Amino acid sequence: MEYSVERRFKNPLVSGVIATTIAFVIACIGWPIWALIAKSIISNLASVGLSQVEPAAANQYIKDVTEGTFFWMSINSWVWFTLIFGNYGKYSKTKKQPIAGLRYTALAFLSGIIGMIVLVGLIGIWWKPFNLSTMLMPKTAEEVLLATEGWAAANFYAVPVLICQIPIVAAFGKWPFAGKVAPPWDGFGAMMTSTVFALIVWFAMFVPSFLKFQLGGQTAVIQPMGTWPSVLAWCQCFIFLFLFPAIGGEGYPYKLITEKQPTKGLITVILSLVLAFIIRGFLRIILEPMDLLNGQPVDLVITSLVLSIITTALLWHHQFFDFPGEDKVKSSGTRFLIRLAIVVILGTILGLIWMKTYTKLPFGSNSMGLGYSTLGLIAGQFIFMMPFLYMNTFYDKWPLIKQVKVESFSKDDLAV
């Protein structure tokens, strides 16, 4: 059976507002359910070790495990399925929504689990904090502490996924695989190549940010960029600089230099790398006197604010149809500037609101008295982000679209 797709709301702004509301509701309801399920499972698996530690240590372990399930199953898998593999195979069983989306979601979640078992489990053969037995079923208080560090470091493999695997699509257009081999093998090539870079960056920047190595009582590592918030602030600036031109920016400003790959990709990445330091420094000057988080490091403010702008950029692209379109503004350069202004202004407003309200939201830092783990200022924004990304890519904007059955006719049916 074939289906034609019709939008329920023709106005992109109306459709976008409704989609945003739906995503917000899903985040408010979905996160408590997800976190309670994760807590129940890991509390049983790790019951022996958890019974031997203080409640604060047990809660931190459960929080990191809960965060890990979300990062690996939802965020990482979405990047792999949608961006790298282009949603390959989504309609292999049915084109009917939401059935196709539900099936694809299940496959994505499963791939996230497998990805963690393969990437982290392999390292865990030699590194005890990453040993799957230690991470999932610690038997002593010492193992609980080791597992907590392992989960924290493993969870933030998601950031190398964002800063290393998205650019191979957003900046390089899957070069050199796109157009050379047919799907899904172009995605496979991009996946393997970008995974190498992601693992290198993970070991270079993120593992040292969490694991506490010592030799003879002396710290054996130097934390990258000085502090963890500094790393996150730079990463968010870098992500926005290479990502926005690939979504609402129509390739600007980098395409003004060249459209040829891999030169375009290299220029995009290099300029984004350099400009991320400049923008982070500029934002420090502007935001530090404001003390928006009551004494928290200014880099944490920058991380949260720029992440809100990135969230807005993705929301505008996926649910607001990159308004204004060509029907409203003919010049692509003008469209880029208008969308950039919209995203930065709305994103800044959203970011300021988020910093003042996240402690009250069930997907921010409010457990609603249910005792589930919350992810707070930074990770909490991803809980809102993923529903609208999944709505657009896995579910084709369902339920904001309707599928109408199209009868298919054979040549004999059309014969007179």
UniProtKB/TrEMBL annotation:
Keywords: Membrane, Transmembrane, Transmembrane helix. It comes from the Bacteria. The keyword Disulfide bond does not apply. The chain crosses the membrane at residues 12-37, 70-89, 101-127, 154-175, 187-211, 231-254, 266-286, 298-316, 336-355, 375-395. This is Uncharacterized protein. It comes from Clostridium bovifaecis.
